Amino acid sequence: MNETMVTVVGNVATTPVYRELPSGPVARFRLAVTARYFDAVKNTWNDGHTNFFTVWARRALGSNVQASLAVGEPVIVQGRLKVRDEERGGQHWTSADIDAQAIGHDLSRGTAAFRRVGRPDASLTDSPPLREPEPEPVG
Questions:
Q1: Tens digits of per-residue pLDDT, 89-112?
Q2: Which of 2, 32, 53, 107 gives a 20 to 30 Å CA spacing to 75?
Q3: Residue 77 CB neighbour total at 10 angstroms
Q4: What are the distances in angstroms from CA 26 to CA 20, 22, 92, 101, 107?
Q5: What is the pTM of this model?
Q6: Cβ neighbours, 10 Å, residue 73
């Protein structure tokens, strides 16, 4: 289990592409991540280099990405980093992909309204419904 886990904060750079595959739904989009630094001499914030990642979201996460994200929105992505080197048309290409486990809007830069997706029928599960714990007495 020597996988590189990353958490990346950036902006959705392309419209998510959604596909229904035999293995289940999958969505992908490009994420732009720009470093910012403070120039104390000019007393201003400046943009540094922009890195681009291809984010892959599978199964329910893929369906939710397709219904929730649009170009320009600030997001936080957590998942497995995979860097690939390949030759295409005689040229060398390096790409950085993130196999996402979780994706959410960056609430430090705006608001969002969460909507829960349909849940499986409760009669099909063995576990009882979760209850909020009773408060403990103080003292």
A1: 899 999 999 999 999 999 999 999
A2: 2
A3: 23
A4: 6, 10, 27, 12, 25
A5: 0.79
A6: 14
